[in-house]
Amino acid sequence: MKIKHGTVSEQGLVFWSYDSDGRERWFDPARYLFMKNRAAESQFRRYHQNPEVWRAKSRAGAAKIGPKQRAETYKRWSSANKDKIRDRRLKRTYGISSVDYDRMLEAQGGKCAICWTDKGAVRKKTGSGYALYVDHCHATGVVRGLLCSNCNVAIGKLKDDPLLLTRAADYVSAHKGSRNNYTAPAQMGEMQTQGVTQ
Length: 198
Fold this sequence. Notes:
This protein is mainly α and 198 residues long. Among the domains are: 1-49, no CATH class; 96-173, 3-Layer(aba) Sandwich (His-Me finger endonuclease fold). 51% of the residues lie in helices and 11% in strands. The strands form three sheets. Strands 1-2 form a two-stranded antiparallel sheet. Strands 3-4 form a two-stranded antiparallel ribbon. The longest helix has 21 residues, at 29-49. 4% of the residues are buried. The mean pLDDT is 81.
């Protein structure tokens, strides 16, 4: 029976793989970390002995490639690694992983948390849809849920203020189906005293 990658022996060795002749390859995690750290320390020391030389080498290497080739290389890499890019962006911006995003999407039934549409948004040029937006509290940074483009923009324009959102809902409900029969809200004086201008 073949040994699985990552199997740990009684001696604490970890199975890596079989070589081309079918022999087992094991490694010692403690020794591996020791060697890795030693190499990193050595590189750190060499860099700090003469940092200008290393910077010059780095700039020379970048100059050899050229901006067009660099852009093409990144384009190829990014098209092959969309999941990595998405995961990094989610972690950097919201502190969640792709797995967390997928769990939230599943919990919401794949729909916007407000309007329940299952379409995030559609790009005008290509017509392709893209994912629901991560909605978060701008004051605390806490992620609240996933919203479509319209709902995300709407609550953002109303400054994430529950009072303004409630007033907007009341306003739309009061004027639903009516035509040109504007009446000032009864609470207008109350709104002005609370600091909301007309």
